[in-house]
Amino acid sequence: xxxxxxxxxxxxxxxxxxxxxxxxxxxxxxxxxxxxxxxxxxxxxxxxxxxxxxxxxxxxxxxxxxxxxxxxxxxxxxxxxxxxxxxxxxxxxxxxxxxxxxxxxxxxxxxxxxxxxxxxxxxxxxxxxxxxxxxxxxxxxxxxxxxxxxxxxxxxxxxxxxxxxxxxxxxxxxxxxxxxxxxxxxxxxxxxxxxxxxxxxxxxxxxxxxxxxxxxxxxxxxxxxxxxxxxxxxxxxxxxxxxxxxxxxxxxxxxxxxxxxxxxxxxxxxxxxxxxxxxxxxxxxxxxxxxxxxxxxxxxxxxxxxxxxxxxxxxxxxxxxxxxxxxxxxxxxxxxxxxxxxxxxxxxxxxxxxxxxxxxxxxxxxxxxx
Length: 370
Ligand SMILES: *[C@@H]1O[C@H](CO)[C@@H](O)[C@H](O)[C@H]1NC(C)=O
Ligand SMILES: *[C@@H]1O[C@H](CO)[C@@H](O)[C@H](O)[C@H]1NC(C)=O
Ligand SMILES: *[C@@H]1O[C@H](CO)[C@@H](O)[C@H](O)[C@H]1NC(C)=O
Ligand SMILES: *[C@@H]1O[C@H](CO)[C@@H](O)[C@H](O)[C@H]1NC(C)=O
Description:
Layout: H1 6-15, H2 19-46, H3 62-65, H4 69-75, E1 92-95, H5 101-118, E2 121-124, E3 139-140, E4 151-153, E5 174-176, H6 190-196, H7 201-221, E6 232-238, H8 242-245, H9 247-252, H10 259-272, E7 276-282, H11 285-291, E8 297-298, H12 305-314, E9 317-319, H13 324-333, E10 337-340, H14 349-353, E11 367-369
Helix pairs in contact: 2-4, 5-13, 7-12, 12-13
One 2-acetamido-2-deoxy-beta-D-glucopyranose (NAG) is lined by residues 213-214, 217, 298.
């Protein structure tokens, strides 16, 4: 659209400006935009935006940019709205953070992996994990991650890897998510992920004290002199509560492992390790305490979700049930991990979110039991 198009005239008529003023303003705008264009051309050749340092200027979407230059300049007289820099690194991603700790960790880690793979920066609209982790590389920037200014990028399924997530068109900034529950998005950067998901020192100290306490009780009950460092802590996370009580979870397809899965998993661990102290955590401790007791079974007194997460992820090995909270504590613990093989009912909507073999979700060396 050329200058003086109908939209331009309508704009001026609206303010009822005299025509010589209109012509004068038009000249100023044209000259200004030519100068800007030239200076931006020069500067775009001489400067590169370094990754993970300089917050990029948010960019308009391509549709807007291809509209009449004059109309754009009149509406928003900012030079950054007139050109789209060539460097991919000027663009950024924001994870769509929702849900509890486990879900947030997944979307953060996956979007981190996608950002690293595509040479983009990472920002967050808020950090809902800062009570647990002291340093995430994604910088909080409410303005840049304002959902209204971003295009949304969603995966085809929630719990399997979608390679198209790395094929986003270059000229946009994206809000990415919201589940992205596959380790394959961040597999290449797992050291960076583990480093960022280092649990805050004070939470870690409390978790250590708690495990020391358990080790003391365990060794004294055995009447053996056993140093606490030779005790093998195995976490047992039993997700029940909400998953059982709320019918929408069941309808969607969640299958909750029963008592016999936990018994089988504990027996399996006993074939691999000795001097085991099983450390239980659940959102249904009443049920767990009614079903499991013994000299090697412990229920930590710290019961809030963050302390329990710190305890579970400080254990040597893990028995998980369902849910992402247990998934992440096992991932961070890094030992032998047993998982429930059938977390989703065949034919359910939840089942469709996973790959047919569940291999995008559970790590390759984790062991599935039924
Ligand atoms: C992430 O933050 C840590 C700590 O500040 C820093 O050492 C590391 O280089 C950062 N990683 C990236 C990829 O920016
Ligand atoms: C350890 O034993 C003491 C004394 O019997 C008890 O008060 C405490 O609750 C036990 N701790 C754990 C973690 O079981
Ligand atoms: C440990 O010793 C106490 C007495 O000191 C005894 O009552 C208990 O049965 C012993 N436990 C085991 C496992 O030997
Ligand atoms: C289990 O992990 C703790 C650290 O959390 C360590 O001190 C201990 O030696 C480990 N136990 C075994 C048997 O490896």
